[in-house]
Amino acid sequence: MPEQLKLTDIIETLDRQVDGDTISLQDIVDTFNSRGFGPVVALPGLIALLPTGAVPGVPSLCGIFIALIAIQLVMGRKSPWLPRRLRERGIEHDRWHRLIQRVRPWTQRIDYLLKPRLQWLTGRIAQRLLALLMVCLGLVMIPLELLPFAAALPALAIVVMALGLTAGDGLMMLIGLVVILGGGVGVAAWTL
């Protein structure tokens, strides 16, 4: 059984191991190694899910970014490629340290929920299919932006699936699928 990934350990490792004044997006991707797709996709999904997703243009930008990153997993890349300007973007180390202190209780709760389960859903083929779904969901967020908070449903599914992808937790990936299927059934029932 693979070793369980602890999000709390990873963010603390970033704080300890990264030298310099800034922790870049590339440092974060490198720390997550092959699971780098999960956090890089979860972040814009979370931005679109939170109230920031109501700002015009934000769901579209997040959806495009998600689609561009997820398509790389579909194509078989081991870790996400980011343009140089984006790779170098980051957060000040002191600010990161303060952020860790605030989010630690939340990451510990998430660590409690994430476990390596349903390993057949975490294989390469399943990950590629899941990434293809994320590409579609990211692109669907663009027209859904026209309705206030409508992009939140695909964003929620993307965040849940990205957490499952990060932790190798097939159950979380399955829950993300259920969220999007349940939302689709709900929308279909509402329109009828």
Can you tell me about this structure?
This protein has helices spanning 7-17, 25-32, 37-49, 58-74, 84-87, 93-113, 124-144, 152-167, 170-191; strands at 22-24, 90-92. The protein is mostly helical and 192 residues long. It has one domain. Strands 1-2 form a two-stranded antiparallel sheet. Helix 1 runs antiparallel to helix 6 (93-113) and helix 4 packs antiparallel against helix 7 (124-144). It is globular. 32% of the residues are buried.
State the main characteristics.
two-stranded antiparallel ribbon, 192 residues, 3% strand
Order of helices and strands: HEHHHHEHHHH
Global mean pLDDT: 80
Strand content: under 5%
Number of strands: 2
Shape: globular
Please write out the topology.
Blueprint (H helix, E strand, L loop, with lengths): L6 H11 L4 E3 H8 L4 H13 L8 H17 L9 H4 L2 E3 H21 L10 H21 L7 H16 L2 H22 L1
Antiparallel strand pairs: 1-2
Short précis:
With 192 residues, this protein is mainly α. It has nine helices and two strands, in the order H-E-H-H-H-H-E-H-H-H-H.
